[in-house]
Design brief:
The structure is a homohexamer. Chain A has about 140 residues and is mainly alpha-helical. Chain A is built from six helices and no strands. In chain A, α1 runs parallel beside α3 and α4 packs antiparallel against α5. The radius of gyration of chain A is 19 Å and the shape is elongated. Chains in contact: A-B, A-C, A-D, A-E, A-F, B-C, B-D, B-E, B-F, C-D, C-E, C-F, D-E, D-F, E-F. The interface between A and B is large, with 70 and 70 residues.
Chain lengths: ~140, ~140, ~140, ~140, ~140, ~140
C-alpha cells in the first residue's frame, strides 16, 4: 500500500496522532488520506509537509478552490495518478462543478500542446515579456 | 528567433493576416506574440491553434484569469520559459495581482513536491478516490 | 560553454581523437558538435555514447530520417533546447522537408495534449490493449 | 473507469453518436476506445479533439504509421501508460513490425539519455544550429 | 533578472535581512544566490523554503554531498538549467570531484534511458518488488 | 506482463541466456527482473543495456549505494513506478536504511519544489555559476 505500509490512527505515535488530529479538524473530516499515513513513517516530513500545505492551500488572494484547480493542473502535467484522483475528489468536495472540471482539463490539455509548439518551433521570447516586469506598486 | 523565423503582419498571406486580425480584435491589442508569428509558417496549425485557444481560454464556468493561472501552472511544471514569461505578463494584464502570483507559485511548488512524495513512497489510492466519482447530477 | 568547457580536436587525447575521427567519418562531415566536445571530458562516456548512437540511429527497420523525427519528438517533450536545435538541423540535413517538420510538430503537440486528457480524465485501459499483445510471429 | 465513467454508444446523445460514427467510419472499426467514451462528457472537447486528431494524424508528408511512432515516442517520454498501450496496439494495426517497435524503443531510450547528458553537462548551442535555419525554399 | 527583480541585501526588509543573514551564516559565505533574492518578494515563501532547505539538506543519514548529488539528479531530470548550474557549483564546493560529477551524469543518463525502456515495453512489476517491503526493524 | 511478454530463462536463446547468466553472477542472485525478461525480445538492446548498466552502476568514485539513490531520484522525478519499486528494493538490499530512504525522499521532494520556484520566478543565473567552472586540476 506504500513502501513502509500505512500508519493507522490507532497505531500512531502521539506526535503523529497530533498531526492527524489537526488534519481532521482543519479539513472538517474524520478521514485521513493514504498519503499522510504513508509519509507518517517520517514524522518530521509529515509535520513539515502538513504545515506547509495548511499554509499554502488556505484562503488568501486566491480562494481554496482555485488552488485545488492549480494543484490538479500540476498533477496532470506530472502524470501523478494518485494526486489527480485525490485532488479531483477534493475539488468536487470544495465546490468544483463538472463544468469547471471540464474547462480545467481543456485548459490543461491546450497548455500542454502549446507549450510543446513553442519549444518545438524554438520561439524566442518577445522583448516585452522579458522579466523583470514593470508592475504597478 | 524561431526555426523558420517570424512572419510579420506586412509579410503575411491573406489567410494568416485574417487570423492575426482576429487575434488582435479578440485580445484588444495591436501586438502579435512571437508564438503566432513562428507557427504562422503552418497556416493550418495557426488557424486550428488560435481557434482552440479562443474557445478554451474564453469565459465559461471558469473566468479567464483563473484559466491564465492554470496555464502558468502547466507551463512552470513543463519548464517552458517562453510560456511562463508570456502568460505571466498576460496574467498581470488580466488582473493578476503580485499577491496572487506569489500564492500561485507557492501552490505550484508545493504540488510538485507532494506529487513526488506520493510517487516516491508508492502510495496506493484510497478506495474512496477511485473513479468514477459519484457526483450530483 | 559547458561544465568543463569543450575539448577541441587539437587538444584531444588520442583516445578521444579516434572517436572524433569516427564521428566525422561516419557522418561524412568535418564538424564535431559541442555535445561530443563537452562529454569528451569523460572518454568512457564519449565512447559508449557514440557507439550506442551509431548502433541505434543507423539504418534498420526504420530509416535514419524517421529516427531523427522520433529523436526530435522526445527532445521537444523533454524541453531540451540544445537537442531540438541540433536534431532539427540534422533532420533537415537528412532530407526532412519543411512540410514534414510542420506535421511532426503538429503530432507532437497533439500527442502532448491528448496524453494529458487521458490522464486528467483518469481513463482506464481498454481490455483489448492490455499487454502482452497477440502479435503475428 | 474514468472520472465520470464511460459513455457507451447506446447512451450517447445524438451529437456524441455522430462523432462516434465518424470515428468508426474513419478508422474502419466498430470499436470506440475508452478515451473517447471518457471525454464524451464534454461534447465540445470530444468534437474538437477528434477533428484535430483526424486532421493531424491522417496522411500528409508523413505517413500515418510514422505519425503513430512519433505519438508513441511522446507518450513514452510522458509516461502515459494508457497512451502507450493504445498507440502501440494501433501501431501494430497500421503495419508496425516487432522489429520496428524495437528500434523505436531503442531510439526513445537513447534520446532520453542523451537529452539528459546535454543538460547535465550544460552544453551551449553550436552557432551553426542557432535558429532561424537557412533552408532551401 | 526575475519576474519582480532581485532584492539586494541593502534594500531588504528586516525580516528578509534576517533570513539572508541566516543563509550566509549557515553556508559560511557572504554571497546570496539570485534564487533567494528573487523569492524574497514573498517573505513567507522565503522563510519557509529556507527553513525547509536547511532542515532537509543538512547532515543526517546521508551526508550533504550525497544530497547535492541527488539534487543535481532531480534538476537534470527536470531540465532546470539554473538549478543544475547552481547545484553543480555547490557540489564542487562541497567536495564533489570531476570524477564524481562524471559518474553522476552517467547514472542520470542511464536511469533516464532505462526508465523509458521500462515504460515503453510496458513492464509489469515483479511480485517481489510490490510494496510494502518486508524490512528489518 | 509486457508488450511481448517475458522471456523466461528456459525459453531463452543461448545469446540471451548468456546475459541472464552474467546478470545473476554479477549480482549474486538467481533472480532475473521482469525488466530484463521484457527487453530480451531485442537481444542487442538487452546486451547493450546490461553492459552499460554494469559499467555505470559498479563501484567508482561513487559507491554503488549512492548510485542507487541517484537512480531512485531520477525514477521518482520521472514518475516511473516500476523503476521506483525495483530500485527501492535494490537500494535496501545494498544497505539503504529506512532513515536514508526518508532523507532521500525529502531531498527529492524539496528539489522538485525549488526547481519549480526557480522556473516560476524566472530567476536568471548568477554570473558566478556560469559554466565553464574554474575547477582545480
Amino acid at each position: 500500500m506504500s513502501t513502509f505500509g500505512l500508519i493507522e490512527y490507532k497505531d500512531a505515535s502521539p506526535q503523529v496522532k497530533a498531526i492527524y488530529d489537526d488534519i481532521m479538524t482543519t479539513r472538517k473530516t474524520d478521514y485521513i488520506n493514504n498519503f499522510w499515513k504513508a509519509i507518517a513513517h517520517d514524522p518530521a516530513l509529515l509535520k513539515r509537509t502538513w504545515e506547509d500545505v495548511k499554509a499554502v492551500m488556505g484562503p488568501g488572494s486566491l480562494d481554496p478552490l482555485t488552488k485545488e484547480l492549480i494543484y490538479i493542473a500540476v498533477s496532470v502535467t506530472n502524470s501523478c495518478n494518485y494526486c489527480i484522483a485525490s485532488h479531483t475528489a477534493s475539488g468536487f468536495a470544495k465546490g468544483m462543478t463538472p463544468a469547471m472540471f471540464k474547462e480545467l482539463q481543456a485548459v490543461i490539455g491546450m497548455a500542454n500542446e502549446t507549450n510543446k509548439l513553442v519549444i518545438g518551433y524554438q520561439v524566442a521570447l518577445d522583448a516585452r515579456f522579458q522579466p523583470p516586469l514593470d508592475l504597478p506598486k
